[in-house]
Amino acid sequence: MESAPRSMAHDVAGVHDTLRFGFSGVKNELGVAHPLQSLDSTVKKQAEAKRMILGNTYGSAFHLRMDLDRQILSRFQRPPGALPSSMLGLEALTGSLDDFGFVDYLNDPRESETLRPVDMHNGMEIRLGLSKGPAHSSFI
């Protein structure tokens, strides 16, 4: 399944469209849109380098083991209710327990004053496919 491209090509019929995209220049082509994009790409490159080092150290089967562990721990969740799943095992596996990123101190929607508590029975029925409807009563 292919997704649509995220950005429109700046060349229309081989010529830069100045009215839509402004003047072309080296700064526009090399710069990132936001500083967090460069941070995200840096984190991805560091994770890939760490993965390659571990693969070279422990062998090619280590990648498969890490992927299998990641898949198992990403599916493990608490039932719907008052306590959200923290994915502690996945954070321990990936090493993100020690990281304090911008996501950690931004507003969490679960801490909102307008959020109503989740009906655990309704949430489990929806998760198991016994019922249809919104998973949370605040979505009604």
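That was protein one. Protein two is written in the same sequence-then-structure order:
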Amino acid sequence: MAANSSSTGSKSSSSSGGKQSAPSAEQVVATFQRMRQEQRNMASKAAELEMDINEHSLVIETLKDVDPSRKCFRLVGGVLVERTVKEVLPALENNKEQISKIIETINTQMQAKGRELTEYRERYNIRLVGEGEGDGQGQSAAPSSNSEGGGSKSGAGVLVS
């Protein structure tokens, strides 16, 4: 009985090692979908920040034509604060610059995520629903000529909707 326990332990360790090198189709699809969702979230956040920059630009252009000593109200952390245009204008310009830097960072991250997605698609031969049949045949031929030990698994491919 002790022999069975030790052989079961070795089987579970060898099977977990196998799962790490060759994830199931469901795991591949789930990881791919998660990565795509992360990229979509980044794009959404970048678009939201672009709208904030447009709003900042509009307010800055409006306040440039106003007397610097005029009263101005600014929303800070959910609290409406009374300031002068002279105090608010530099803060708005600074915020706009900071938002621009954040957008650049997000765009860089989105490009990196796109490259990661492309590599993942190629590694597991993932085809999206709606891709042309000619593209799918060309992709399935390339991995089968690859001489990595799992050529047959990558040749099967995964179809993602």
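The chain has five helices and four strands. Keep this in mind for the problem set.
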